[in-house]
Structure formats: structure tokens, C-alpha cells
Amino acid sequence: MVNVDNLIDLENGIQSKKVFWDQEVYDQEIERIFGRSWLFLTHESQIPEPGDFFTTYMGEDPIIVARQMDGSIKAFINSCTHRGNQVCHADSGNTRSFNCSYHGWSFGIDGELAMVPLEAEVYFNKLDKAAHRLPEVTQVDNYRGFIFGCFDAEAPPLQEWLGDMAWYMDSWADTGGGAELIGTPMKTILKCNWKVPSENFIGDGYHVGWTHSAALQMIGGPLSALSGNGELPPMDDVGAQITTRHGHGFGVIWELGHAIHRDPGDYIQFQQQTLPEVIEKKGEWRGKFYTGHWNSGLFPNCSFLYGTNTFKIWHPKGPHEIEVWTWTLVQKNMSPELKREIKKQAIQTFGTAGTLESDDGENMETCTRTNRGFQTRRGTMNSSMGMDGDGRHPELPGVLGASFIGETSYRGFYRFWSEIMKADSWADIHKNDETWIDNWLGKDAVSGMAARNIA
Amino acid sequence: MADQEELAGLELAYQVEQFYNREARFMNQRQHRQWLETMVHQDIHYWLPINENRFAKDRRPEVTPEDGGIYDDNYGDLEFRISRLETGQVWMEDPPSRIRHLISNVEVYHTDDDKLLNVYSNFHVYRNRRQRDETNLIGGRVDLLVREGDSFKILKRRINLDMRVVLDKNLYFFM
Ligand code: FES
Ligand SMILES: [Fe+2]
After folding, report:
1. For chain B, how many structural domains are there in total?
2. What CATH number does the domain containing B31 carry?
3. What is the pLDDT of residues A299-352, one digit of tens each?
4. Interface of A with B (CB under 8 A)
5. Host H or E run for residue A333
């Protein structure tokens, strides 16, 4: 078992570089994090009809997600119970059965073993077919159309797992008709540890002006001032950083939801038209979140940019490689033309050939690869920015940082990372449910953001 | 796709091949703006659809430009991408990466319109970055070229990359 306390210093916001490299850390992550967390599978809009399926991974396990005849959704392991062959090689489609290409066992859309070739002749009808269904993912649930699965029966219900993060996400996932993912996901590889993009998306407002300097300069508009960190806006009323119980978090810049789009006119108009509904349904605060830009992460490996309309999952492929899957995130109530326009712009920024995507990939790879060096790996990484400002806010749930450019949600990500890596079971984790903020920051920690009374 | 029956004559086919070789050289020498201004039509649609692995019996329609894609660019979009490269602030291109385009299997056909040619070609793009970072990307292109004097402009380009998972960290280069 890895000694997690040697890897993470919560008090000072420090992580060992080993977390990006060591095989034993990775193996424990696969078992304790990917084996016990709710993981994003797909969006229900991707499999609308009975018989529709979508293939993905949970950790490194191949998974089929399928819409059942009664409209419900099940997920199971994409590996034949005969000799282990993969039973479905398509990315998506509609089918009545999954037919194994090895000996022809055939599984229903519900994962049951439906047909075995020569069953009477070679098994003399003695094969217990019920015992040979495709193993089902223990829990599958739906948050406003986003389907998640979890292999741990003891894990809290999805709504509780998302917790305060769902309260924030409701500002757009429960308004405007709800959110959906459109199109075929793009897939690429990055030779990096899965946590590098996860931590970057969850909290890194700092890199935006520098890493993406060229693209911001070309996009123009309100964010171009950030290009090359040339001209920093006043930092005390720009946005916020938030982290929550299970490590989910985000950074928000107020009012600039659309700012990465080159041609945001119709999107701004949609937001202005729908804002009154959001405020009426969800209150003033969430109205403010609704028009902001979020860089966000759902622990462990799902990230999205609300505003830039990009939704990603980082599938781990060993400690030093990931597969990046990218969809476009839109509101259901947008017109087909607006969805098409947004999809084009979202892909142009954070798709496979994206003007900002291509800035990030190399940083993520070399943040990983340098740790091949033994001496390098003995070093540490720093995420202490804005630490003194972390704390509670009188009106907003979770822990809030002092400013948009900070590392609060990095710290929150590694806070829960270390908790779940150390815990023997969900029962252990539950013991901290009421006290996690007190234990982490002390009883009186008030967010620097609240102290400035920005509302 | 327009009529593909009538194969172009030797001279015309030769001109098209030289056009592609010049294009490849512009790419390899990072003369992107020169490429755009001299070889690309103002009304271009430059398209690289997203591949998906589907069962052979899948009845969903083939991908169309309406579905968008990894590239779904008009002239302004291409110009934007090139301008970004010209800012001098694309850190991953400093030191610059190396890129080489090999173009082959060029087939040139006349269409119903005298001015338009329908052209198929294949590419192999080799990228080499930093110390030992290298990728090989292979695919095909379907172009609609407009004849302009002795030369051509690309009016439509559909790029088919022969992979599902793009085995590279991005595709920020022109194919
Ligand atoms: S491994 Fe699937 S039928 Fe034998
Ligand atoms: Fe970035």
C-alpha cells in the first residue's frame, strides 16, 4: 500500500512528483479511486432509443452502456464470460444482441447470455446461462441526463456523490431545457498522467493567459487582455474558485461565459433570453454562475468548460498515457442552428485540432515525462496559490478561494484524492462527511472572496 | 461528387501534381500564409470529419459536412489558425517542430464544369518534435480544384484520416 501522507502535504498544498509517475500509485488509484468513484459513462442523448449502445471505459475496464427495451439504462463489462474476448467492437450503434467473434456466444442488450452455439450438442444443455451474463456495473444512475456508473455498492448515491457541485451545475443543467452532449466524440492520445489534465481543467486559471497567449490574442474580445499576462484585470471581483466534498470543483470568471468563442453573438443572446428563467428558478447567485465561464472537473477524470461548451473525459491507459474523449456541451433549448454554430466553435478551440487544445497537450506530456528521472521524481510540486483565502462563504456551498486565479480546486482535488486513496472503505470516508472542512482548514476559515463581499 | 469518368490528360495531371508538391513544400517550410493566399479559394470548405467505428450493418447515414468535424473551416477560420502561428507566442512551436508531407496516388478527373477538377490524393505526414517525439499520419484527400490560369485553387477539401483514435496529441497542421 502506498503511503499517501508521503505524497501529499495538504497543509501546504504540496504534492510529490511521484503521483504523476509511479506504477504503484497508479495501481492503487485504479483499485481505490476508479473502483469506488462514480465515473461518467455517456449522456442519455447519445443513446436515445431502445437497443442503442455506447462503448467506453471505467478506468481501464471496457464497458458497454445500453438503452434497454423499457427505456432504462444498464452498463456491463465488455468482455465475454466464455474466454474473455471483447464482445462489442463498435463505438456506438443499435442492436438486439452482442455477438462474440470468438465462439459466437450471444448476449442480449440487457447483458444476459441469450444464445450459445451447439448448446445441446456440446454442453448437453448443462451450461448455467444465467451465471454467465456480462457482469453488470454495480450502480448506474443519471444526473440530469448525464449517465454515471460505479463499481462499489457502498458508494453514496450519485446525487450525494456530486453533492454541492450539482447545486452549482443545476444553474445550467436544470435550466434552458437541461444540457446535452452532441456529436461523435473525438478521441486522441496524450502521453501524460490522467491527473495532469484533470487538475488543469479543475482549477487552473493561472495558465490561461500564458499557455494560451497566442490564441487569446487572436480571439480578441475581453480575454485578450490576459494574453501573455499582459494586462491583468483587477483580481478581486473577477470570479471564484470552488471545491467540494468529493473533490469536484471549478473556477469561474463572471460574465465571460462566451469569451473563448470567436463569434459569440447568438450565444450571448440565448443566455440573455434564458437568464430570467435561471434567476427565477435558481436565484440570483446561480444566475451569476450561469453567465460565467467555468473550467471544471468532476472527480476523478471528467472535465468540462461550461461557456466554451467542451466536455471531456481522460481515460487512463497506465500511469503515463491517456485517451482524451471530447464532446460538445449545449443547452437542449438552443436552436439547431445555434447548436451547430457552437459545436463548430467548441471544436475549433478544444477539439483535436483546437487552437487552445494544441497549447495544452505538450505541457501535460512533459509534466509527466520529466518524472522519469529518479532525482526529479523526488521533488515536489506546488499548488499553494491563494491558500490563505480558502474558506466558507455565507451563501455558497463548498469551499471557496480568494480569486479566480488561484489553486483552491487543485488543493481540493488532492484533498479528496488522498482521502479516498487512504480509506479502506466508503464507511471510512463517510466519517469525514461533516467535518472535512474543519479538519482541512479549521473551523473559522472564511473565504477571502466572502470577506471582500463581492456579491 | 461530380462526374468522375473523364480522366485528365497528361499535362493537366502533371500540373495538378506539381501544385500538390508545391503545397507540400509550403507546409514543410511553414509558409502557411503563402499557401493560403496563393492556393486556397476564398470560398473553401476545408473539412476533416470525425471517424467512428460502426458495425457494417449500421443504418445511420454517412457523415456529412452538416455534422461538422475536427476541421470544418472556411477561409477566415484557416486565416485565424495561421495568424495564431504567426504571433510568435505558440510555445510548443518554439523551438519549431519538423513536418514533412508526402503526397501520392494523385487521380485527376474533369467534371461537368470546365473550370472544376475532381482530384483524389493520399498523404503521409511525418511530424517530429522536441528530442524524439514523432508521429506518422496517413490518409486521403478529396479535392475540388478551380482552374485559375495555369494553376488552381482549392475550393473543397475533404480529408480522411485513417484512424479512429488520433494517435497524436493534436492535428494542428494542414493536410
Ligand atoms: S470467448 Fe466469447 S464465445 Fe468464446
Ligand atoms: Fe489550457
Report:
1. 1
2. 3.10.450.50
3. 999 999 999 999 999 999 999 999 999 999 999 999 999 999 999 999 999 999
4. 89-95, 183-191, 211, 213-215, 217-218, 227-228, 262, 323, 340, 343-344, 347-348, 351-355, 357-359, 361-362, 365
5. none
